[in-house]
Amino acid sequence: MGRVTSRHKVVRIDLDGDVSRAIDTVAGEEPLEIRINGETFTMTMRTAGADVDLAHGLLRAEGVIARRDDVVSAVFCSDLDTLNVLNLTVPGRDARTAVTSTRNLASLGGCGLCGTTAVEAIEAVVRQKPPEVLWTAEQVAASTDELRSRQVVFDKTGGVHGAGLVPAESDRLAIVREDIGRHNAVDKVIGAALITDVETAGGLLVVSSRASFEIVQKAAVSGISVLACVSAPSSLAIEAADRLGVTLVAFARGRRMNVYTHSHRIPH
User: Counting Cβ atoms within 10 Å, is residue 69 exposed (0-12), middle (13-18) or buried (19+)?
Assistant: First the structure.
């Protein structure tokens, strides 16, 4: 499974004070190979923990699975020297052909294709807009504050992102996950919701990072109505959220936030 954190020697230099030696706690980062029916689907760098959630969320976001029952089992390959290989039994799916149009977007970001092409690829998969669930600005602010208060690994390391889900008609985070990768943290939340039958449609997803295109993609596939991130949005994230019907909130810090798309869901 690997370690969530590890401890390392560090020399601390204070230009206005002393130089000292100490032991620092840092976030773990290790590879995880995800297999479908014994064949490699992808390799991701992640913080160990909630790996089954991560795998389910990734496959859900990529359109490989749609519900919990699509996965018969998720088992670490204990016959190997490392436990960083997780095999999911998904009847009727082949890892070599499970690469969907959404997954191909990983290559679009750096190949010079226009952003419109990337958004259109997602639109072909996400055919239904998120439900018209309203969330007050106070609820968004309270949820980002709650996420920060529940980031246990961040408190120890300062080196991981957090993501949390507030289901529709709720006012508390039902699921919180952390990971060194912001995308992984979101996948872990989506996967945990899938496994535990927590409804994502109409929900509020809060993330302790910038708002990127990939996170908007994951929110849209899951039917999330409002995505709130604590940092800046990218131009493609805004375009995607607008066309996919996701309310995108960024710079959600304290009692201030910017609503970039579908602001009608945040009464003001």
Answer: exposed
Buried b (16+ CB within 10 A) or exposed e, 199-236: ebebbbbbbbbbbbbbbbbbbbbbbbbbbbbbeebbeb
Where does residue 49 fall: left (phi above 0), alpha (psi -120 to 50 degrees), or beta otherwise?
Answer: left
CATH number of this structure's domain 137-265? 3.40.140.10
Instruction: Flag the least confident range among 77-81, 92-96, 124-128, 258-262.
Output: 77-81
* Structure confidence by residue, pLDDT tens digits, 42-66: 998 999 999 999 999 999 988 899 8
The reply to whether 111 belongs to the active site is yes
Three-class SS state of 177: strand
Which tokens hold the place of 263? 């602001």
Question: Tokens standing for 77?
Answer: 């390959």
Instruction: Measure the CA–CA gap between 52 and 34, rounded to whole angstroms.
Output: 10
Contacts of the segment 106-109: beta carbons below 8 A, 24+ positions apart: 109/213
Catalytic residue among 77, 111, 114, 229: 111
The rounded Cα 268 to chain-centroid distance in angstroms is: 28
Alpha-carbon distance of 254 to 231, in angstroms, equals: 12
Dihedral over Cα of 146, 151, 152, 157: its sign: negative
156 closest CA partner among 28, 19, 15, 16: 28
Q: What is the pLDDT of residues 148-162, one digit of tens each?
A: 999 999 999 999 999
The Cβ of residue 149 has, within 10 Å, a number of other Cβ atoms equal to 11
